[in-house]
Amino acid sequence: MRDGELDVERPVDELCERIVADHHAFLYRALPALVEDLGRLADDDGGASMLAETRAAVADLAEQLKGHLSKEEHVLFPALVALAQAEREGGGRPALPFPTVLHPIRMMETEHARIDATMGRLRALTHEFAPPDDASAAWRRCLAQLSELDADLREHHRKENEVLFPQALELER
Questions:
Q1: In angstroms, rounded to a whole number, what is the distance separating the alpha carbons of residues 154 and 65?
Q2: What is the pLDDT of residue 47?
Q3: Which one of 30, 44, 71, 143 is separated from 78 by 20 to 30 angstroms, measured CA to CA?
Q4: Is there a contact between 80 and 93 (Cβ–Cβ < 8 Å)?
């Protein structure tokens, strides 16, 4: 549910599934398209220096997200799903690859801050994704894609930092 509130009453495992289905899926579609579109722009679209810096920042963002999403999907979220299922079934704490979910959650929060800083750099570089009057249609499209990506990442991180992670920590207690 990218455009609405995440139901805080949902179990942790359902929250994980929804975040992957909504936000991770969006990023898997949006980032390659954005990188491709930026690569097609001529250097005079948006100015050679701004375009080069934007391409570099987006490449950095894509690299950060590649590792981040993988850690969530293959390490943290499966552990959270196992905790939720064990609680629902009345079982004990399942075997996890770490002593507590606190440490991987803190790592994800730190990565969120790095990703947010990269998006901040992109917002500053592109004047909050506002195209100049003489911007080409292609540059306007890239700036609109960046703006949508920024909005999605903000909501994605809010859902994890403010809803999922506190619920997961409470579940583990």
A1: 13
A2: 64
A3: 30
A4: no
Instruction: Give, in order, the Cα–Cα distances in Å from 61 to each of 52, 97, 121, 136, 166.
Output: 14, 27, 10, 24, 26
Residue 87, number of CB atoms within 10 A of its CB: 17
Q: What is the pLDDT of residues 22-40, one digit of tens each?
A: 999 999 999 999 999 999 9
Q: In the 3-class helix/strand/coil scheme, how is 12-33 assigned residue by residue?
A: HHHHHHHHHHHHHHHHHHHHHH
Residue with tokens 């990188």: 35
Tell me how far the alpha carbon of residue 60 is from its chain's centroid: 13
Length of the chain: 173
Closest CA to 17 of 122, 139, 140, 164: 164
Place of tokens 């289905």: 21
What lies within 8 Å, CB to CB, of 124 at 6+ separation is none
How far, in Å, CA of 46 to CA of 137, rounded?
A: 11
Q: How much is the pLDDT for 143?
A: 96
Divide the 173 residues of the chain into consecutive groups of 10 and give the mean pLDDT of each group. Answer: 57 95 97 95 71 94 97 96 91 86 96 98 95 89 97 96 95 87
Closest CA to 52 of 120, 117, 126, 113: 126
